[in-house]
Amino acid sequence: MSLSESDVEGMETKKDVEGLIKALQYKGDPDVRKKAAIALGDIGDARAVEPLIEALKDGEYNVRWEAGKTLVKLGEPAVEPLIEALKDDDYNARRGAADALGKIGEPAVEPLIQALKDKDNLVRENTAKALREIGDARAVEPLIEALKDENSLVREHTAKALVKIGDARALEPLIEALKDEALGVREGAAEALGEIGDPRAVEPLIEALKDGEYLVRRLAAEALGKIGDPRMFEPLTQILKDIDRFARRIAVQAFVKAGKPAVETLIQSLNDEHKSLRRGAAIALGNIGDPRAVEPLIEALKDEDFNVRKDAAKSLGKIGDARAIEPLTSALNDKDTSVRKAVKEALEMIEAKKS
After folding, report:
1. CA distance linking residue 170 with residue 145, whole number of Å
2. Measured between alpha carbons, how far is 317 from 121 in angstroms, rounded to an integer?
3. Average pLDDT rounded to a whole number, residues 181-193
């Protein structure tokens, strides 16, 4: 029997749930299946739950999407079947179930907490994803326990859930998770500790700056920037030497966020033998804008590395101190084109601030 979208509209008008369930399974036209999923959501009959979960496996993305949205609309009656679907062999069904549970929100929290103990790794992993989506503090203690899970992917998504919730009860377990063998767990732990913002995490995060994986170093630097403890200054100068340019950029941002207390450390770093540290220090000093940096940045206009000279000029322009006019004017004769361009722009910025 063939079905059309107009047939589905007629079924919706009559509230023909059984007919719409059959339309949801109609292989002839994905638009019919999609429209049936939407109609079942508008009617709101719990009989549609199981067929809609089956529709999460549909080959057409739009059908899966509408089936998931309808399951969210149906709410609490869909929770237990969706949790069961977390262990489905079909990836789309598992993903769709986790997404739907996360969007159902509060009614799904307690059943999801129970599902964290499921014997199936996939169920526990997708449960952690759903709890992350919800971000309910009731899940903190069970998630802390799940940080000890034997499966690394479960631990990883658990750590990410704790990032979203940002509850200080997770502090000690997350500090311990910075040493986890799984990269994703260490990443999630570093990010979560930054969200929690507790100074007790500073020393462990400083240690994490030495992690062999650049992603962990980035996230540890970012977390330290969020906490803003002066103990981070010296270790972060080492990240300004990191081979990963994104890690260096994050370290600069952390110094800028710290502001004036970081200035002396950065001034000292302008004399370091490592050019990327000198360059990062010059950039950070310009963004902080403290006049104490003017004389050291003037000196940096003579640096052997053209990038350091260029960034020193840019920073002097940002600070806008008249003491830099004469040294910058001399630097207009720099042998490097990019430096001369930066010097010219810096002088223009200083003049603009004077007028």
Report:
1. 10
2. 56
3. 93
One-letter identity of residue 221: A
State pLDDT tens for residues 304-344.
Answer: 999 999 999 999 999 999 999 999 999 999 999 999 999 99
- Reported confidence tier of residue 1, pLDDT bands at 50, 70, 90: low
Distance, in Å, from the CA atom of 325 to the CA atom of 350, rounded to the nearest integer, reads 8
pTM for the model: 0.74
Please state, as a whole number, how many other Cβ atoms lie within 10 Å of the Cβ of residue 256: 18
| Cα(344)–Cα(36) distance, integer angstroms | 66
Amino acid letter for position 124: R
Tell me, what amino acid is at 30?
Answer: P
For 59, phi then psi, to 5°, come to -70, -20
Going by C-alpha positions, the residue among 174, 169, 206, 209 that lies closest to residue 193 is 174
106 contacts 136 by C-beta, under 8 angstroms: yes
Q: Determine what percent of the chain is predicted with pLDDT higher than 90.
A: 71
**How far is residue 124's CA from residue 146's CA, in Å, rounded to a whole number?**
9
User: Which one, of 304, 303, 313, lies nearest residue 338 by Cα?
Assistant: 313
40-78 pLDDT, tens digit per residue, is 999 999 999 999 988 888 888 888 889 889 998 998 898
d(CA 131, CA 164): 9
Q: Please report the domains of the chain, with CATH numbers, ordered by start residue.
A: 260-355 (1.25.10.10)
Tokens 């990240």: give the residue: 239
The C-alpha atoms of residue 126 and residue 111 are separated, in whole angstroms, by: 13
DSSP calls for 77-112: GGHHHHHHHTT-SSHHHHHHHHHHHHHH-GGGHHHH
Token look-up 């996939």 returns 122
Of the candidates 65, 46, 54, the one whose C-alpha atom is nearest the C-alpha of residue 27 is: 54
Instruction: Give me the chain's average pLDDT, please.
Output: 92
Q: Which residues contact 40 (CB under 8 A, 6 or more apart)?
A: 17, 20, 21, 24, 48, 51, 52, 70
- Going by the DSSP 8-state scheme, the letter that residue 355 receives in this structure is -
The pLDDT value given to residue 354: 75
Place of tokens 């059309």: 4
